[in-house]
From TrEMBL:
The keyword Nucleotidyltransferase does not apply. One of its GO terms (molecular function) is exonuclease activity. It comes from Oceanobacillus jeddahense. The keyword Cytoplasm does not apply. The lineage of its organism: Bacteria, Bacillati, Bacillota, Bacilli, Bacillales. SUPFAM superfamilies: 5' to 3' exonuclease, C-terminal subdomain (SSF47807), PIN domain-like (SSF88723). This is 5'-3' exonuclease.
């Protein structure tokens, strides 16, 4: 019987989302030192709402540690389409981690790996004896869904979540979680800037995987495919396997986070002391969701 409920938070996903949700109006929330704080403020709104909604017993926040990773070494085009972060966001990278720390939530990250790899590793570490919830807006993480691991995708609007678990996954995606990796191998991922197989889009990739199950079985049955699909696969075989490797989240990176250290038990006074430095009004309102019971239970 699992009793602990561990929430793994995709820190960068929440920070970027929060920053762009407010910055498009030019609202950077500068403090008296001229430091913008809007991304951190919105991050905190997302975080407190998720903790209120899902009622975890433990919380860990995972972070990307720079743009260079083992994936950029495998393929130099990986995420090469991404702009540099806006100057107003840069000082908020350290600021947000200090705020997370004030809640006694561990910040976890490892150079050369992405937050996804850290979350995948911790999820697999914790899931044999605990329920794990992964909070993000990134659908790449859906491949991690299995017994005791759920992925919470943040939809448009605050407090709007879609929860994927082992029971509802096929109904929602018409694939298994493991097939998400092969899907990306075939169709690529424009946001991460790897192409997959030229000329094969999501619709065709989905159909092929529903029929053959995996990329390997698909290649083994090449003669059963329409000539046009065969030609596309043969022309881009190397990129197919490279794209699949780029899509796969590593679940064995050398990190650890003792579960006891992530127990959710924030001390309001300590948090308010940290938040007061950011010079926000009505700091207590930000913490209100943490004092109320959710209307629904997950």
């Amino acid at each position: 019987m699992t009793t602990n409920k561990v929430l793994l938070v995709d820190g960068m996903a929440l920070l970027f989302r929060g920053f762009f949700a407010t910055s498009f109006r030019g609202n950077f929330m500068y403090n008296s030192q001229g430091v913008p704080t809007n991304g951190v403020y919105q991050f905190l709104r997302y975080l407190t709402d998720a903790i209120h909604t899902f009622e975890p017993s433990h919380v860990v926040c995972c972070w990307d540690m720079g743009s260079k990773t083992f994936r950029t070494e495998m393929y130099d085009g990986y995420k090469a389409n991404r702009d540099e972060p806006p100057v107003e966001l840069i000082p908020q990278f350290d600021l947000v981690k200090q705020v997370v720390e004030s809640f006694d939530i561990p910040n976890i990250g490892l150079e050369n790996f992405e937050a996804d790899d850290c979350m995948g590793t911790l999820a697999n570490m914790y899931s044999p004896e605990n329920d794990v919830f992964i909070l993000s807006g990134d659908q790449d993480l859906l491949q991690l869904v299995k017994e005791n691991i759920r992925v919470i995708i943040m939809r448009k609007g605050q407090g709007n979540y879609e929860v994927f678990d082992k029971e509802n996954f096929y109904e929602k995606k018409a694939l298994t979680p493991a097939q998400i990796i092969d899907l990306k191998g075939l169709m690529g991922d424009s946001s991460d800037n790897y192409p997959g197989v030229k000329g094969i889009g999501e619709k065709t990739a989905l159909k092929l995987l529903q029929e053959f199950g995996t990329v390997d079985d698909l290649i083994d049955n090449m003669e059963k495919l329409p000539k046009g699909v065969q030609n596309k696969l043969q022309a881009d075989m190397d990129m197919l396997y490279l794209s699949r490797n780029l899509a796969e989240i590593k679940c064995d990176v050398p990190i650890a986070c003792d579960l006891e250290a992530s127990k959710w038990n924030f001390k309001e006074e300590k948090v308010i002391t940290e938040l007061d430095r950011l010079e926000w009004k009505h700091v207590d309102r930000l913490l209100n969701p943490l004092k109320n019971k959710p209307s629904i239970s997950f």
